[in-house]
Amino acid sequence: MSAVSAVPFGTLPDGSLIESYAIRVGAIELHAITLGAIITSLRVPDRHGRLADVVLGHDTLAPYLQNTPYFGAVVGRCANRIADGRFRLDDQDYQLAINEAPHHLHGGDRGFDRHRWVGRPSSRGDAAGVTFERTSPAGEEHYPGTLRVSVSYFVTPDATVIVEYEATTDAPTIVNLTQHSYFNLAGETSRSILDHELTIHADRFTPIGPTRIPTGGITSVEGTPFDLRTPVRVGARVLLAEEQLRRGGGFDHNFVLQRTGQERVPAALLEDPASGRRLEVSTSAPGLQFYSGHKLDGSIMGAYGRVFDRFAGLCLESQHFPDAPNQPGFPPVTLRPGDVYWSTTSWQFTIG
User: Using CA atoms, how far apart are residues 346 and 273, in angstroms rounded to an integer?
Assistant: First the structure.
């Protein structure tokens, strides 16, 4: 049985209404709001059938209007970091906002996560969902071209959440969208993700320099802490005294997926042995950014009265590589008039 419903979630300072859409299919219940197409809650069962919320979020609007670390949001126009906020396209230089000095991060001072989207229920076969749409005008955050973008969340009867992105432009621009949910399969407890086991299906990654911009190289994971091709306890690796982990402050790195064509390929498997919950991530994107949540510092209180301490959740962000506009060896992120940006990612929840 499936259902999609919408209720008011709050009001922006300009009086605009933010709605919350609830998608219920089988035992899965997903809530997303029209601010930033943010997933505020995702409840899935454990091995005993007990439901719990496996993403970090808030149950009121106000915290999302503050400087929260992109909980559950769609980020863009260009996700991840762009070195010095600069890129060159068709012999023209562009300077974007510097919002993580000295770089541009996740779309700038007011990226897609800070804008109101228009939502509507949608469906596909036996999947129920919601589609969010917005138009990003030319010059927004200093990006060229007017971008029309949509993001859809579908929930299927086999306990899978499908995320689909689509965008078109009226002038050459750059686009790289991702979903920035923080996962903790233990649910709304105080347990960290350090005892989660993670597999990433990648034999290469893009090392970073001192300010977390990729060096331009693509390096084998063999013999490094980034070899996650078999299940590894997150806490056994994230605190190692290794140069790349030191530069990232933990894991904040892009993994190179073995992808051909536009079909989804397996990217990662996250497991919580205590609850039995498992999350399998597949994507059509060329990269997966693993962020271990080490910047969370206990200054934010979320839903259920929980304080988000260090390692309260982790992110598995399917996307193009960081700083792609400035790295000729990386898959391009340029979108031109007449072309369509399209990407899809799935999160399938199972019990182990």
Answer: 21
CA 304 to chain CA centroid, Å, is 22
- Model pLDDT for residues 169-194, shown as the tens digit of each residue: 999 999 999 999 999 999 998 899 99
Count of the separate structural domains present in the chain: 1
Catalytic residue among 188, 197, 271, 317: 317
CATH number at residue 147: 2.70.98.10
pTM beyond 0.85: yes
278: cis peptide before it, omega within 30°? no
Helices (H) and strands (E) in the chain, counts: 2, 27
Give me the residue label for tokens 């790295």: 327
The domain in which residue 159 lies consists of: 2-351
Can you list the alpha helix ranges (DSSP code H) found in 239-319? 243-248
Q: Is 190 helix (H, G, I), strand (E, B) or coil?
A: coil
Residues contacting residue 119 through CB under 8 Å, at least 6 positions apart: 6, 19, 21, 32, 34, 37, 130, 131, 132, 133
Q: One of 103, 180, 196, 320 is an active-site residue; which one?
A: 180
Question: Nearest 5 degrees, angle CA 118-CA 122-CA 126?
Answer: 160
- Please say if 100 is a catalytic residue: no
Q: Is 31 a catalytic residue?
A: no
